[in-house]
Each structure stands twice: as structure tokens, then as C-alpha cells.
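User: Protein folding is very new to me. Would you mind checking the protein record under this note? It all follows right here:
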Amino acid sequence: MATNGNIAPDRERRIRTSARAMAFVTLLMFGFGFALVPLYDVFCEITGLNGKTGRVEAAALAGQADLSRTVTVEFVTSVNGALQWEFAPDVTRMTVHPGQLYEASFTARNVSSAPTAGQAVPSVAPNTAALYFNKTECFCFTRQEFSAGESRSMPVRFIVDRNLPDQVRTITLSYTFFDAGPRG
């Protein structure tokens, strides 16, 4: 029969081992949580999910236009309710040739009496087209700061890749502006 002196050190050792294992698992889960954000961004960029589109240099695709084919690009905008802005495309649709560089302009206006900042989040539909819709310049890449009542035109330059599947004849580019917090 074991005595209390022999049981306590063994039990204490198991408790310490369990505590270390739980601390390690907790640290591992915490690190995994932080790693998920960039991994999700990479996954969305590769697959085109969640409206992620490619960003390329215009020179990389110059001179590759397919003039025998046209695709309609529609522009849709919205503003999150927390942001007091008006935001609209200057034209609601364009007919483009895959492989050719185009520019579309949007107009945003801060209708509040205070300076505000917004950030645009793009989305492309259908999801299969997101892989083939490449922006070379976009206001969505940076935080937009507006003075009270300020209005400005904001361009987006894009190229629809020549390898866009033939069944995709219309692409919808949608932007939603969200409040980006206090002016920095």
C-alpha cells in the first residue's frame, strides 16, 4: 500500500505536465488565430473568393487585347450606414475588350459637417470572374480622408484577363464604403 508521501509528488508532477500542455495548446491556438487572417487573404486571392481581385502592373498586360471579344463590366456602389457619404459610379456599365486597360471613375462626397475617413471594399461577381479581373490602380487600396462637404472623383484602372472563361459575358464590380474611424 502506498503512503501519502509517495502519491503527492507523482500527482504534483502530473498536474505540472498537464498545465504545461494546456499552456502550450493555448499558445498554439492563439498563434493559429493570428495566422488565419493572412492565410484567408492568400486563399481568397488565389481562388477569387470573397471578391478578391488581382492587382497587376499595367505594363505586365499591355498589348494583349482581344479585340474580337467584348465583356460588359457593371459598377455598383453602396455606403455602410455608419458613414455619411454619397458614393456613385460616373457610368454604370462599360463594354470592354479582354486584355485592354480601362479606367472607370467614381464620385464620393462627405455629406456630414465633420471630417471623415472611409475605406472601400471591392467585390466581383460572378466569383469565377474575380480571378480574371485585375486592378492596376484603385482607391480601395488606401484609406480615403475627406473634409466636411468634400467631394472627389476616384478612378479605378482595370484589365479583364484574356483568359476569362467564354461563358462569362458580364462582370459586376461592387464597392461598399465603410467608416474607417477617426481621421489620422
About this structure: Residues 90 and 106 are 5 Å apart (CA to CA). The chain has three helices and ten strands.
